[in-house]
Predict the structure.
Amino acid sequence: MPVGEDIERESEMHPEGIAAHVLKQWQERKPVARDVNEVFAQQMTFGQRVADAVAAFGGSWTFIGLFLGSMAVWMILNSGRPHPFDPFPFILLNLVLSCLAALQAPVIMMSQNRQSAKDRVDAQHDYAVNLKAEMEVLGLHEKLDELRDARIGALQKMLEKQSATIEELAAEVKKLRGAA
């Protein structure tokens, strides 16, 4: 699978754009979050899995230790024998090392390109999840504003009732003072 194909497929799944897709999911109360690593792992071919395993092993201390050990054994075997299969300038060893580097470099680059594509899909997914979270927060703010406005309205009605009651009482007190 070419490197940018995941992103292209993601765009094809949501041609209206991520924001519109998130809005639609939010309106339908559906989740946006998913495990991008799992989705990405399911789409990998056997060759891609092998390339990732080679890149992971080639970039480990185990590989470095085995590599240095095998080079030391090679040199020791070819230095202390009367008829070595690869005498001192170790031309065969140089050929083996060159072949190893020639094969290992593109495999590691393929793995890095795939990781880069995965990172782009992951960033796109993070954006979608963050956008949905922001929309949820805005929705909560609207609900709180509605509750606050309803509460303020109820308090204003209560205040108006109390003001009317106070005015009635003040008028009655005035009447009682005038009658006395």
